[in-house]
Structures are given as C-alpha cells and as structure tokens.
Sequence to fold (323 residues):
Amino acid sequence: MSPADPGILALAVILDLIWGDPRWLPHPVIFIGRLISWLETKLRAAVSNERIGGILLLLITTLVTGMGSWGVLRGGAALAPLLGILVAILLSSTCLAARSLHTESRLVAQALQKGDIGTARQQLSYIVGRDTEQLDEPEIWRALVETVAENSSDGIIAPLFWLTVGGPVAAMLYKAVNTLDSMVGYKNARYLHFGWASARMDDLLNFIPARLTAVIMIASAPLAGLSWRDALAVFRRDRHKHPSPNSGHPEAAAAGALGVRLGGTASYGGVPSWKEYIGVPEHPLDERAYRSMIILMYTTTLLMTALCIACAYGVKGTYVPQI
Fold:
C-alpha cells in the first residue's frame, strides 16, 4: 500500500458524484458480503470458540480482500499502464458512497412527499438497521437525517481518509471491515462474541475519520447555509451521548448545524432501544431538515476531498505513488 495519487483520488470522487453505484455493475461489497456469509457458516461449524471464530473471520476476510484488490490493480497495470490507472479510479470510487447515499435516501423522501408512508417505511428499511414498520413521518425523517449524518463518516469521509493514507487497497480493506461490522457486529446473542473482533476493528478504523467528519461538518456548515457555532456547541456538548464511540461525533455536529434533535427511541428486531437526545429541537425533523443534511453531506465531501488532495500532493515528493 502507498498514499493515493491525487489525480486518482480526485477522479474517483468525481466518478462517485456523477455515477454513484449503478445497480447493473457488480459492486465489490457484494462479493465481500458473500465471502463473509460463506466464511461464517464454515467457521461456526469448524471452530467451537465463537470469539476465535470471529477473529478468524476478520483475518481471512481482510486478507482475501486485500490480496484480491492488489491483484486486480497489478493485473490491470501489467496489461497496460492506462488500464491500471482506470482500474484504480474505478475501484477507489466503489469505496465512496456520496451519490448512492443521496439516491437511496431520496427514495424515502419522495415517498413521504407523495404521502405514501408504506413505501417510505419499506425504502427506509433498506438503508437503516432499525425496525421501520411502525414509524410515523417525523420518525422517518429523523431516521433519514441520522443515517445520512452517520454514513457521511462511514461511507464517505472514512474511505477518503484511508484512500489518502494507503491508496485503493487500504480503502478496500476499510470497506471489508465496515461490511463485517454491518453483518456481524451486533450485540445480540448470535453475534456478541462472534462479531466482537469485527466490531472493535471497525471502531478503531473509524476513530479518526468520525472525529474528522465532525470537524469538517462544522467548517462546512456556513457553505451549506447552516450555523457553525451551533454545530460546534452541540458537538462539544453531545458527542459522547451516542452508544457508539464514533457515531455521536458526526451526528452531534449535524444536529447542531441543522438545529434539530436526534436520538430517542428506536426498535431493533422488536427490541426497543433508547438513545440519549443529541441537539436542540429548534426546527422540526422534516423535509427541510433532510434537504439541509444532504447539502451538508455534499459540502463536507467536497471540503474533505480538497483536504485529501492537498495532503496527497504534499507527500508526492516523498513517496512514489503505486497502483
């Protein structure tokens, strides 16, 4: 792994913003997910200690992902230098989720605009982990704002951070760990021990990006027509109220910038869960709040991209970027 080439980084972001993740194009995360499901079945049958089995799941998944990504990049470069660059751009763009986050959340918003709360609940269930069957309209808007805020870190800033640090292979390794966490990182009877290693590794890899996301959101707030002072105040006060060691940072910054209150009761697998309130309800959680969150997400993405390109250029004289 080596630091990202600034040109590849910039083009990967542009490709994601323009193209997103077309459904017809096989996405690496799909293959990673299938690998995780297959390995879980095999490891549970072969290893009696769930924590050891989970550690093996993490190691094998990341090893296969890292070697596979490196092999694809090297194979493309061996066939033709230009092909290697194109593969690097495409692979890097699949690690980013700004356009797809907007696209998927917009389907929920459009259903609410039409008064079709049933479709809104169904579409929301595809992008959040909470139960959606009984949610009313304000709770659906709240879930949308929370998931866009949280995934601004997990799906955009964190991949950009690791792409800058270690190029496409590092970004793909991050995506593998993030996918592991989304599949086995639950604190329930089935995954409490088996998913422990994946959840802890995801927390570790997101430690810096989550805090960086909050800082950049605060800086981006004026560009989105929002308040950086309120974003900073709520971030300082409420960032540790979330049960996740990382998610509270971007959610607090977003809540303050938007002037809304996040948190409250949500149900997961039929089990109610209470999260402390984050932010102050100066404005309702509605379509305006969602649209402002999308604008804040994009401005944060662009500011982070500029920062990453500057950093990549800064180290270019020391490192020779490798595909």
Remarks:
- Residues 6-314 form one domain.
- Residues 318-323 have pLDDT under 50 and may be disordered.
- Residues 137-184 form the longest helix (48 residues).
- The chain has one domain: 6-314.
